[in-house]
Backbone:
């Protein structure tokens, strides 16, 4: 079945009407938070603002930003806008450093989240006739439970496998015949590679849709997963602070992701000046989750890098679209002064039939000079080739990566299956530099 629109009214609302609704919801949200959430009240006062100053969407740009530090400084419940007895669920995300970012959901928030996930699932063409295998982790991570509730609300047969235990995952894929798989793209690739180990051919699977996200992945990787698992892959985006999966989803008409604009007001800002950027310009993605009751956030800087696009999409939706997130501003490596994102390296590797998209980037500082080494797994067939061929491919990759990044990196082709695999978000970079 092809995709359909779950909430016609909200997902196809004329742009001006949506902006008016967003402005109204923003004003309500500011009023709700002012006086209830102490850190936010202080922020507004410091900026010389009162709730009455915010009446329309145009006034959004006057409001102060919120960042992960605000969540950490107010750990665990200081960002909550309702008493704890109204909270029915808590999630948390740890990130790489510091205290966890804790978020609370009221019953209405869980309903809103399920609605957003239904919209996302519908955009991929799933309906109640489908069986969804959820291999995102269940627990404090939002991936598993978030999609689970949306899937059940839509009436799909939902298999809550959670992450880990690859052997069992493959057995379920082969025996229960799910038609859709939800997990991180790196784990989808791992599952595809492991099919053979367990004597399963992709023709024995019934998958037709993949709902992949929670980490950056390139379009080249998307094509590989589609081919290896014989499905159509969609990109699902979200973050715990604003809700979890379902904030945006790609559609059948293209690779841009539709943001659920009636709940999340998106801006893209210049990373240095924090000024709003016009349509199509690359910058940091900022969200205001104006309908959330538990932990609403205003102008939360995700530090994810993307561009925004407006106008009606080929699928009929009018919601604001964002480009596939290529990385986070804080994931960016600066090697000898040059900005490098792991996904740039990934898109080069994926043009080579001799290697697998399993790679690790090691960064060191030797005699005050940054050095980058990229280790890439060879395919089992290429691994058995002559040393001369392997060295030649290493040289070609060296040149290609240098041309793409503008700096050189040592390339080391390693044995198949020798690099660590992740069951959730993949770790691609080990930065061993000390400053
Ligand atoms: O990763 C929520 C999620 C679960 C999204 C399942 C999609 C599917 P956090 O653990 O809080 O929440 O991490 C959020 O992950 O700021 C991005 O940097 C990254 N991220 C999430 N989705 C994508 C995506 C979940 N589709 C952080 N593409 C975000 C690229 C993504 N990066």
Residues:
């Amino acid at each position: 079945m092809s995709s359909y629109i779950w909430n016609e009214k909200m997902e196809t609302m004329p742009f001006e009407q949506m902006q008016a609704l967003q402005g109204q919801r923003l004003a309500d949200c500011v009023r709700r938070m002012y006086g209830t959430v102490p850190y936010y009240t202080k922020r507004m006062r410091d900026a010389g603002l009162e709730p009455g100053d915010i009446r329309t969407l145009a006034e959004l740009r006057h409001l102060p930003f919120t960042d992960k530090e605000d969540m950490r400084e107010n750990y665990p419940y200081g960002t909550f806008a309702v008493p704890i007895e109204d909270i029915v669920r808590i999630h948390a995300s740890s990130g790489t450093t510091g205290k966890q970012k804790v978020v609370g959901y009221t019953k209405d928030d869980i309903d809103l989240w399920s609605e957003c996930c239904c919209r996302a699932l519908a955009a991929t063409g799933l309906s109640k006739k489908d069986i969804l295998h959820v291999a995102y982790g269940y627990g404090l991570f939002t991936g598993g439970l978030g999609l689970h509730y949306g899937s059940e609300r839509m009436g799909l047969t939902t298999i809550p496998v959670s992450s880990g235990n690859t052997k069992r995952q493959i057995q379920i894929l082969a025996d229960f015949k799910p038609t859709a798989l939800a997990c991180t793209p790196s784990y989808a690739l791992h599952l595809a590679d492991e099919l053979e180990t367990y004597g399963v051919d992709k023709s024995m699977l019934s998958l037709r849709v993949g709902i992949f996200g929670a980490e950056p992945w390139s379009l080249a990787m998307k094509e590989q997963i589609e081919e290896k698992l014989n499905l159509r892959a969609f990109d699902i985006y979200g973050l715990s602070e604003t809700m979890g999966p379902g904030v945006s989803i790609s559609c059948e008409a293209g690779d841009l992701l539709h943001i659920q604009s009636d709940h999340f007001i998106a801006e893209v800002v210049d990373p240095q000046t924090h000024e709003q950027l016009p349509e199509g310009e690359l910058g940091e993605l900022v969200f205001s989750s104006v309908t959330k009751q538990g932990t609403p956030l205003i102008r939360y800087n995700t530090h994810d890098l993307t561009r925004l696009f407006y106008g009606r999409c080929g699928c009929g939706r009018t919601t604001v679209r964002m480009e596939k997130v290529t990385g986070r501003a804080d994931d960016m490596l600066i090697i000898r002064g040059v900005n490098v994102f792991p996904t740039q390296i990934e898109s080069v590797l994926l043009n080579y039939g001799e290697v697998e998209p399993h790679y690790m980037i090691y960064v060191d500082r030797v005699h005050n000079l940054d050095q980058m080494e990229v280790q890439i797994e060879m395919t089992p067939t290429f691994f058995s080739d002559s040393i001369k061929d392997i060295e030649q491919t290493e040289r070609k990759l060296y040149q290609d990566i240098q041309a793409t990044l503008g700096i050189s990196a040592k390339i080391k082709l390693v044995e198949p299956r020798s690099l660590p695999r992740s069951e959730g978000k993949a770790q691609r970079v080990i930065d061993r530099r000390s400053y």
Summary: The longest helix spans residues 15-33.
